[in-house]
């Protein structure tokens, strides 16, 4: 994994409790709201610290949603 990270210039950062809780809440929201969705990624929103963006596919469409630090969806 370390060799892959160096080759692709990826920084590995340790998870912290607030982040893992927010990401778990985001995953739960997607799972409940879009049960057939395929989650592609969850990452911190560069435009607003402490917020998250998720990208997922549902029914052949790709979606991007934003969430606050507690994992609640927010308007763009």
From TrEMBL:
SUPFAM superfamilies in the record: BT0923-like
Protein name in UniProt: Uncharacterized protein
């Amino acid at each position: 994994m370390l060799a892959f990270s160096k080759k692709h210039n990826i920084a590995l950062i340790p998870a912290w409790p607030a982040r893992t809780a927010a990401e778990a809440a985001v995953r739960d929201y997607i799972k409940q709201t879009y049960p057939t969705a395929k989650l592609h990624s969850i990452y911190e929103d560069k435009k607003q610290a402490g917020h998250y963006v998720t990208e997922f596919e549902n029914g052949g469409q790709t979606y991007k949603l934003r969430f606050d630090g507690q994992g609640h969806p927010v308007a763009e």
